């Protein structure tokens, strides 16, 4: 029998983005975000949070290896729309800055965003 694979969705990206944003400026190490990276825009979100790489396995299993070109085009469109010339120019721009208070503010803002975008039970 064929295994029923559960591929990740963009919705699952929220928690990895929050933690990457909180930790990427505090720890001197590389970050890879996995789980929920399904588009070029998702990759941009990972980079904005401070990730060095984004794992796109589910997207490739779902759409095939040719989808990498689509993801790259989405990233380039995002960058062109904002006149950004390189990944280095925006990497980590949404990461929480140094202080514990800034990290707490960042975490609360992310929590507020999750609550405002999640439908209430029974709807």
TrEMBL record:
Protein name (Swiss-Prot/TrEMBL): Diguanylate cyclase
Q: Which organism is it from?
A: Acetobacter malorum
